[in-house]
Amino acid sequence: DIVMTQSPDSLAVSLGERATINCKSSQTVLYSSNNKNYLAWYQQKAGQPPKLLIYWASTRESGVPDRFNGSGSGTDFTLTISSLQAEDVAVYYCQQYYSTPYTFGQGTKLEIK
Amino acid sequence: QVQLQESGPGLVKPSQTLSLTCTVSGGSINTGSYYWTWIRQPAGKGLEWIGRVDTSGATSYNPSLRSRVTISIDTSTNQFSLKLNSVTAADTAVYYCARWGGGVRFDPWGQGSLVTVSS
C-alpha cells in the first residue's frame, strides 16, 4: 500500500493569512506515461462527507475558490490556501489514486488563530 | 443530480455481520463508467477505502479487509451493498458510500451511516 503522511496534524492560521499543508507519499504517484500525479485533496467540514478540492495534484475542481492551490510532484505535495476565510475551517486530506487500495493521509485540522 | 444514501442497522454485535445498502437516486447506477465505493471513518480519525464494485459486478477490496468484506451491486434496484463479517469494536465507524468517476474523484458521497459494534 502507498502510505500518505501529512504535516502538520493541526494548524491555526489568522484570517486572511496563508495556510500550507504538506503531504508525502511512500512511493511516487507520478505516472510516467502521462506525466500526471495521481493525487487529490479533500476538505471535510464537521458532520459532512469530504469534498474534492484538487485533483491531478494541481487542478482545481469546478466551483472551488481560487485561493485553494495544489502543487508538487512525485512524492511531495502541498495544498495552499492563500487567504484563509472563516469557512475554510475543516480537516484536509490528501489521497492517492495511483494504485489500489486508494489511501488517504491522516488529515490536517485547520483552525482560525 | 445523482445522490447516494446509506441505510442499515446502527448497532451490530461483535462477531456478527455488518450490512449496509447504498441507494442511488437521480440517475441510473448503470450509466457511465463508475466504480461504486465504500469508505469508512472511525470517530475522530482518517478515511479508509474499503473497496468498490462496477456495474458488471467486478470488485476490488482493501487487502486489510479482503477476508471479511463483500461488496455487491443490484442494478435493478439501483443499489449496492456492503457486508463485513466477524466484526469487532475496531469496525465501529461512519461508513460512507461514494461514486468514483472520471478516474479522479469520489463524488458524490452519501451523508454517512454510523455503525457501532457493541454487545
Write up this protein.
- The complex is a heterodimer of chains A (113) and B (119).
- Chain A is mostly beta strands and 113 residues long.
- Chain A has no helices and 13 strands.
- In chain A, the strands form three sheets. In chain A, strands 2, 6, 7, 8, 11, 12 and 13 form a seven-stranded mixed β-sheet that branches. A four-stranded antiparallel β-sheet of chain A has the order 1-3-10-9, with no helix packed on it.
- Chain A is globular and about 40 Å long.
- Chain B has 119 residues and is mainly beta.
- Helix content of chain B is 0%, strand content 52%.
- Chain B contains no helices and eleven strands.
- Chain B has strands spanning 3-7, 11-12, 18-25, 35-41, 48-53, 59-61, 69-74, 79-84, 93-101, 105-109, 113-117.
- In chain B, the strands form two sheets. In chain B, strands 2, 4, 5, 6, 9, 10 and 11 form a seven-stranded mixed β-sheet that branches. In chain B, strands 1-3-8-7 form a four-stranded antiparallel β-sheet, with no helix packed on it.
- The radius of gyration of chain B is 13 Å and the shape is globular.
- Chain B starts with a strand and ends with a strand.
- The mean pLDDT of chain B is 96.
- Chains A and B meet through strand 12 of A and strand 5 and strand 10 of B.
Give a quick set of tags describing it.
heterodimer, A: 113 residues, mainly beta, seven-stranded mixed β-sheet, four-stranded antiparallel β-sheet, 13 strands, 51% strand, B: 119 residues, 52% strand
Give a brief outline of the structure.
The complex is a heterodimer of chains A (113) and B (119). With 113 residues, chain A is an all-beta fold. Chain A has strands at residues 4-7, 10-13, 19-25, 30-31, 36-37, 39-44, 51-55, 59-60, 68-73, 76-81, 90-96, 103-104, 108-112.
Mean pLDDT score of chain A: 97
Number of strands of chain B: 11
Strand share of the residues of chain A? over 45%
Q: Give the low-confidence spans of chain A.
A: none
Strand content of chain B: over 45%
Share of helical residues of chain B: under 10%
Number of helices of chain B: 0
Distance between the termini of chain A: 36 Å
Largest sheet of chain A: 7 strands, mixed
* Low-pLDDT regions of chain B: none
Give the helices and strands of chain A as they follow along the chain: EEEEEEEEEEEEE
Please tell me what the overall shape of chain A is. globular
Q: Residue share in helices of chain A?
A: under 10%
Specify the structural class of chain A. mainly beta
Instruction: Name the quaternary structure.
Output: heterodimer
Largest interface: A-B, 21 and 22 residues
The secondary structure category of chain B is: mainly beta
